[in-house]
Amino acid sequence: MSRERMEQLTKPPRSLGFLEEVALRLAAIQGRVKPELGRGAVVVAAADHGVVAEGVSAYPQEVTRQMVLNFLHGGAAINQFARVADCEVYVLDAGVIGDLPDHPRLLKAKVREGSANLAQGPAMTLEEAEKALQAGRRAARRALEEGATLLAAGDMGIGNTTAAAALTAGLLGLSPERVVGRGTGVGEEGLLRKREAVRRALARLRPGMGPLEVAAEVGGLELLAIAGVYLEGAAWGVPLVLDGFPVSTGFLLASRLNPEVVRYAFAGHLSREPGHRAVLEALGLRPLLDLDLALGEGTGAVLAMPLLRAAARILHMATFAEAGVSGSQ
């Protein structure tokens, strides 16, 4: 029905390009000829990483906690973008080092104070990985119960592009050179240290390991939580918007745990991290935006939310018959 209506709308065929495909996917997700999208939500999952000891980040580890406080005070980029995108920001502490104050939008679910150094040994136990996954599901459930019709995840964790690279490489069978980028802006030596850390982590993986086992070995607590966010969102049947590299890696993990989640997914943007392109290609997702972003926090996903709402409105256009407009000859 939606596809038939699309062909009758007052516009030349396929003149709205990729947005028409997006509109039809939204209609299929909602089971409605004319899809409707309201308020969005982004769950910014935060955790620290032991791998920063390898010199893989341009910023010190304490920035993770400091940025979480910035999110809660409304001072970060994600807060500004969320205001203009009609999106609620939730912050999930999955493993930040140090205590955080109570806040209405902070969900406290600390599994442990940071993952272990993935270059030296397992990042976490399988039980901890499962706990982080479930924390993400609970956070998503709260956002959805409070009215979200669009769901995204964001990330905060100094060192997390190293963990994302290791998890991506482990799940897709890629080399460190394919997936390791400069993250927060490390120089050439830092890039080499990141690749070496990922190489050492991958060397511990064994044939036959399940996706959750791989994530426990080489991933990060917030990456597990992000996977949980998207698994819960898919269970609720809402459109899911992906952000940059760490978030998309978390979604990749979710897709390995339940392939059905891809049906609900939209890639918000393409970041400059090389591993992000590899993830989106593996998922078969085309990014809505390409703005050379590399911040994380969920910023690219939230920026794409108004575009998804606009795409949904395409099917609310009048048909040639409804408008009394002559069609093509």
How would you sum up this structure, described in words?
The chain is of the alpha/beta class and 329 residues long. The chain has 2 domains: 42 residues, Nicotinate-nucleotide-dimethylbenzimidazole phosphoribosyltransferase (CobT), small domain (5,6-Dimethylbenzimidazole Phosphoribosyltransferase, Chain: A, domain 1); 269 residues, 3-Layer(aba) Sandwich (Rossmann fold). It has 14 helices and 6 strands. The chain has a 6-stranded parallel beta sheet, with helices on both faces. Strand 5, helix 11 and strand 6 form a beta-alpha-beta unit. Helix 5 packs across helix 9, helix 5 packs across helix 10 and helix 6 crosses helix 8.
Index terms:
alpha/beta, 329 residues, 2 domains, 5,6-Dimethylbenzimidazole Phosphoribosyltransferase, Chain: A, domain 1, six-stranded parallel sheet, Rossmann fold
Total discrete domains:
2
Report the radius of gyration as a whole number of Å.
20 Å
CATH class of the largest domain: Alpha Beta
CATH architecture of the largest domain: 3-Layer(aba) Sandwich
- Structural class of the helix and strand makeup? alpha/beta
The biggest beta sheet reads: 6 strands, parallel
In CATH, the homologous superfamily of the largest domain goes by the name Nicotinate-nucleotide-dimethylbenzimidazole phosphoribosyltransferase (CobT), large domain
User: What is the CATH T-level topology of the largest domain?
Assistant: Rossmann fold
Task: Tell me the β content.
Answer: 5-15%
- Please provide the count of β strands: 6
SSE ordering = HHEHHEEHEHHHHHEHEHHH
Average pLDDT: 96
